[in-house]
Amino acid sequence: MKQKKYWGILLLSGCLTLSMATLAWTEDGEGEGHERHERGFLHQAADIGPITNKAYKTECSACHFAYPAGFLPERSWVKIMNNLDDHFGENAELNDKTRLVITDYLRTHAADRLPNRFSRSMLRSVDAGATPLRISETSYFRHKHREIPARMVTGNPKVGSFSNCLSCHSGADNGSFDEHSVTIPGFRQWED
Ligand code: HEC
Ligand code: HEC
Which residue ranges does UniProt annotate as crossing the membrane (predicted)? Predict the structure, then answer.
């Protein structure tokens, strides 16, 4: 019995140390010098994660990839969900019940609710008074994609626009946006 307890405590303190380490390096800035720390085991634990809500996945992937909630602050999702009749030039209206279920999911999984390195960086890049409606127009997004020329995006029929995350991030459906598993269709493996 005693033996078991000892191992339990050891395991618990191991987990605590690990999660503290995760917190410590996610506080780091986005500077290139820190990129090295973002790889490996700890990195996995800090990914944005897959979409876990069926209604969201079904309804909001009819026209495009269902964007992970962790890429926008809660107030952005609320604004998007309150204006579905005029959604980027389309009508994406839902019945009240489905709309509420999806809004609730997006709010509870928004960038300000989930501590992972992407969401933290995203939040830092959005002004407190701003409510962006597009992930692709935030400074964090622009910063991460600044080296990609237009011919690979808007000039690329297999991509079309930056809103088409899945075309380049093949793991995006599983919540994986690792810059080391990106391929731009029609071009060689992306290298930094
Ligand atoms: C009827 C089609 C349609 C449906 C259904 C739809 N959308 Fe969209 N959505 C669009 C279009 C069109 C754009 C703009 C895409 C572009 O510029 O390439 C867009 C863009 C977005 C963006 C911004 C993407 C970026 O550039 O960062 C978000 C966020 C978004 N939609 C959320 C949702 C959510 C949440 C739902 C479900 C409630 C939803 N959409 C359902 C058509 C749709
Ligand atoms: C044209 C292809 C393309 C599209 C479309 C695209 N990305 Fe990217 N993305 C990249 C590339 C390439 C990188 C790596 C950039 C670098 O390392 O210089 C990247 C990097 C990222 C990163 C940083 C990854 C890391 O490990 O730090 C995130 C997060 C990301 N993209 C999210 C998105 C989201 C969300 C969308 C859709 C709204 C999207 N991307 C659309 C090509 C794309």
Answer: none
